[in-house]
Amino acid sequence: MSLTRTALVTGASRGIGRAIAHRLASSGFSICINYFENRAGAEALLSTITDSGSDAFLAMADVSDQASVQGMFSEIRKKWGRLDVLVNNAGIYQRSPFESLDFPSWKRTLSSNLDSAFLCTAEALPLMKEQHFGRVINISSQLAFKGSRHGAHYAASKSGMIGLTRSLAIELGQFGITVNMVAPGSIRTRILGGYTEEQLSELSSQIPSRRIGEPEDVASVVAFLASDEASYVNGATVSVSGGSFLL
Ligand code: NAP
User: Fold this and answer.
1) Does the active-site annotation cover 154?
2) pTM of the entire structure?
3) Which of 49, 90, 94, 202 yields a CA-CA distance of 20 to 30 A from 64?
4) pLDDT tens, position by position, 71-112
């Protein structure tokens, strides 16, 4: 990679986003580390990246809020004047039987998981068009395809990403922009924090690869989709689920 490319990773303070930011920094990208509430986690990642000689900065923003996203992008325009890769990773996973799911909870999940991708992509687009280069990578879920008991709001938000990804791939390909989606299965992060060791081992036994995924399993796929080697991959979904997507 001759020029230093830049990447915004939303929700990079922990979990999958953290691993993606770390991996892209190791691949030579300058990173904008977006976080919302976990400033300590974001600062720890910033130190890890800068200590290893790579470039990064922090951007606090609620990606479900338009003004907050616009503020983050004005910081990006000021610092870099460009954006090569946008990873729409930030998301929440709250479980509730449909009968007790109230409208505010539904809207919170849809806005955190889907509106956020719309808002960030809309801000990134003018920069990417001007460069005639861009990579948008949406972190969805296998539940987008399978549905989720007590997670209708979550599955709906992640299914929405399928339509967004495919439509934008068609619309933006002519501008040198690719739009792809990664659909993780069960990945060891705070989202699985409520599971006991016994439940995790039961879960592993049901996965064809017989293990829970690690955030780095997702990060390496994102790094490929962000690389020059992936220039003809557009509108794709990559399942990172140890095969559980098939069951
Ligand atoms: P996590 O450990 O709970 O991390 C979620 C991240 O999203 C945090 O950095 C959090 O920031 C950020 N975030 C949430 N709401 C935000 C908002 N409004 N504005 C900005 N940042 C926000 O979860 P994870 O497992 O890494 O999940 C990452 C993505 O992968 C999510 O989209 C999730 O749906 C998807 N996914 C996860 C799994 C899994 O098994 N873990 C499976 C399929 C898909 P703060 O902590 O700073 O507030």
Assistant:
1) yes
2) 0.98
3) 49
4) 999 999 999 999 999 999 999 999 999 999 999 999 999 999
